[in-house]
């Protein structure tokens, strides 16, 4: 491999690491929709999100996989390894 390619690769990896580490900080305080591997969705405001995508939500509405049951919870904690999708709500 030539030197220029290695330098560009190093810059790209550095930017990706920065983006991944800054995402949890920018998510705090914003409403999020989180979908889990089991099909349930959780809507709430992010209190805390770490680099492993473990999320603490407040004012949560949980929707069942089939969409016919809903639960309101004051808060919940979601392990990052169960998350398949996450969207910022506006």
From TrEMBL:
InterPro entries, A to Z: Lsm4, LSm4/Sm_D1/D3, LSM_dom_sf, Sm_dom_euk/arc
Main location class: nucleus
Molecular-function GO terms, alphabetical: RNA binding
Gene Ontology biological process terms, A to Z: mRNA splicing, via spliceosome; nuclear-transcribed mRNA catabolic process
Keywords, in A-Z order: mRNA processing, mRNA splicing, Nucleus, Ribonucleoprotein, RNA-binding, Signal, Spliceosome
Signal peptide from the UniProt entry: 1-19
Subcellular location field: Nucleus
Domain Sm span(s) in chain numbering: 22-89
GO cellular component: spliceosomal complex
SUPFAM superfamilies: Sm-like ribonucleoproteins
Any Pfam family the entry gives: LSM
Family membership noted in the UniProt record: Belongs to the snRNP Sm proteins family.
Subunit field text: LSm subunits form a heteromer with a doughnut shape.
Protein name: U6 snRNA-associated Sm-like protein LSm4
Organism listed in the record: Dillenia turbinata
Lineage: Eukaryota, Viridiplantae, Streptophyta, Embryophyta, Tracheophyta
């Amino acid at each position: 491999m030539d030197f220029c390619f290695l330098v560009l690769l190093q810059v790209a990896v550095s930017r990706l690491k920065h983006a991944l580490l800054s995402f949890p900080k920018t998510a705090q305080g914003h409403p999020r929709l989180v979908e889990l591997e089991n099909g349930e969705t959780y809507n709430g405001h992010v209190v805390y999100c770490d680099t492993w995508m473990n999320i603490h939500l407040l004012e949560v509405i949980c929707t069942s996989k089939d969409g016919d049951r809903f639960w309101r919870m004051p808060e919940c904690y979601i392990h990052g390894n169960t998350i398949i999708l996450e969207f910022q709500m506006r």
